[in-house]
Design brief:
One of its GO terms (cellular component) is cytosol. Pfam families: Elong_Iki1. This is Elongator complex protein 5. Its main location: cytoplasm. The protein has two domains: about 1-195, Rossmann fold (3-Layer(aba) Sandwich), CATH 3.40.50; about 215-275, no CATH class. The protein contains nine helices and nine strands. It has helices spanning about 1-5, 25-40, 50-55, 80-90, 105-110, 110-125, 145-155, 205-215, 230-235, and strands at about 15-20, 40-45, 65-70, 95-100, 130-135, 155-160, 165-175, 180-190, 190-195. Strands 3-2-4-5-1-6-7-8-9 form a nine-stranded mixed beta sheet. By secondary structure, it is α/β, with parallel strands linked by helices.
Length: about 280
């Protein structure tokens, strides 16, 4: 389902990718970028971190353009978002994509409040066929959980990568207002991003496993119960003091003792001491 939402037409307005140092989201951005490249969309990278020249050298399509905002960090330009807002709006055209790498470094540059207001203003005016993709490194900010929730409020598709369990958590907001949340296993196969729905556990199997854990024979170091073969052998065993089919057949062998059962005898029950009420 996640790939369906990523490749949906018209594209969802704002994709928020939340990653961390253990599992960076650039690979997922590259996967989405390839999708837009096949559709011949204009792709605009706004780079706020890393080596700008190295990133630009990796672009292979004439429809991809890079904008360097790494040089503004710590400079006078960081006092206002007007320059960036003007640049973003000018690049949002029909069938165009804007990639913000990364939101954390935008916050370093402009502060959280200005960054949030800027994104909110751009998203409100976005048209069909336009899309914004933003990377948010959740492990690089204090109070990242609270800031993450605020950013998710703006996103139409929020994706969180969990490297420890190789799972992706995502929330998709449909046009009608319905919210769809899902957890899926994920993996990268070369440039392909593959997800698979989690398999539902077999409840009957889990219950049986729990029952087996508390069975008496599993709680001792010696054997308590009997197998079916052992029960059959026990039932077929004829004890010497029990009456035979022909009790007179062996009179020449000497005296014999026969036991006659009372009505209350419990010789064939599983627990012969059950009547003791212990």
């Amino acid at each position: 389902m996640l790939n369906t939402y990523i490749e949906f037409t018209p594209p969802t307005k704002f994709i928020l990718i939340q990653d961390c140092l253990q599992e960076k989201g650039q690979r997922l951005v590259h996967f989405i970028n390839n999708h837009h490249r096949k559709l011949k969309h204009d792709i605009n990278y706004f780079i706020f971190e890393g080596n700008f020249n190295k990133i630009r050298s990796k672009l292979s399509s004439p429809s991809e353009t890079c904008y360097n905002y790494t040089k503004y960090i710590g400079g006078k330009e960081s006092e206002s978002t007007e320059l960036l807002e003007k640049e973003l709006k000018s690049r949002l055209k029909r069938n165009s994509v804007i990639i913000l790498d990364s939101l954390v470094h935008m916050i370093y540059l402009y502060g959280f409040v200005k960054t949030y207001k800027l994104l909110n203003s751009i998203i409100k005016n976005i048209q069909d066929g336009q899309q914004i993709i933003a990377l948010f490194h959740t492990d690089l900010l204090e109070n990242s959980e609270k800031l993450s929730q605020l950013m998710e409020h703006l996103a139409t598709l929020s994706i969180t990568l969990d490297p420890e369990a190789s799972r992706v958590y995502y929330t998709y907001k449909k046009i009608g207002g319905r919210v769809f949340k899902q957890i899926e296993d994920y993996m990268f196969d070369d440039d392909k991003f593959k997800t698979e729905a989690l398999k539902k556990p077999d409840l009957n199997k889990l219950v049986q496993e729990k029952i087996n854990e508390v069975l008496p024979e599993h709680l001792t170091t010696f054997k308590i119960g009997l197998t079916d073969d052992e029960k059959e052998s026990r039932d077929n065993l004829i004890l010497p003091y029990l009456p035979q089919d022909s009790p007179l057949a062996n009179l020449d062998e000497g005296g014999q003792i026969f036991y006659k059962f009372d009505e209350v005898d419990d010789w064939d029950e599983e627990d012969p001491d059950d009547d003791l009420d212990i």
